[in-house]
Model the fold of this input.
Amino acid sequence: MADSPQRIDRPLSPHLQIYRPLFTMMMSIVHRITGVGLYFGMAILVWWLLAAATSPSAYATFSAVAGSPIGLLVLFGFTWALLHHALGGVRHFIWDFIHGFGPERVLLAKATLAGSVVLTVVVWIIGLALKG
Amino acid sequence: MSTPHSGPAPARATMRTPLGRVRGLGAAKSGTEHFFTQRLTGAANLLLSIAFIIIVISVAGQSYAAARATLGHPLVAVIILLTLLSVTTHMRIGMQVVIEDYVHTEGLKVLLIVANTFFSIAVALAGAFAVLKISLGG
Done:
């Protein structure tokens, strides 16, 4: 934990508001936002497991909420956030091995976004096809 | 010519070499654990998430009894337990970084970091308890 000393009014270095939004920059922000979303989404996962451990009626309640339009939308969003954060993590591994800092970084960022959307749709098509 | 910070340190100051001080982690008493743990759990999460998505798809739409049978299968239960351990470790560190980046009031920051720990451990233990209860037939 870093200490935060008494606040003193000092000149601030330029931050987000001064830079032209760049695609790679937005993807970095989205990586953090999806991480925070997944953090709170874990509560849904635990609800699912606890409901299955508790009783048929508790499980029915969860299934009704999860199967409602809003529930499905949240689960779809959770799937996308998970896959986007996972692919963003792969990008971090590439950087860790000192690759991907050249012009290809934009391609990597676009691949992360496109890949997460495509994989999300694929996962849901497979899921819905098997459960029809 | 020699200044206090150039050349060998006076023998009285410390007997430890610079490498020894680094290994002892210096004054901060912590080093790159968070960075390394995020990579370690991140790699684990990649593998476990694939297995987890398959589990969720196979359980989705199943009856209560069938869902419990799937979740209680030893292989499935172990994968979920590993996922809970790896994910909650990863999300706790990640959220701590977010808190430290944006919350600069000391008291609120400490409070949120404590709440972050409570939430992460609660998710891990509640999920693990549910899986074990199902799997061990409670």
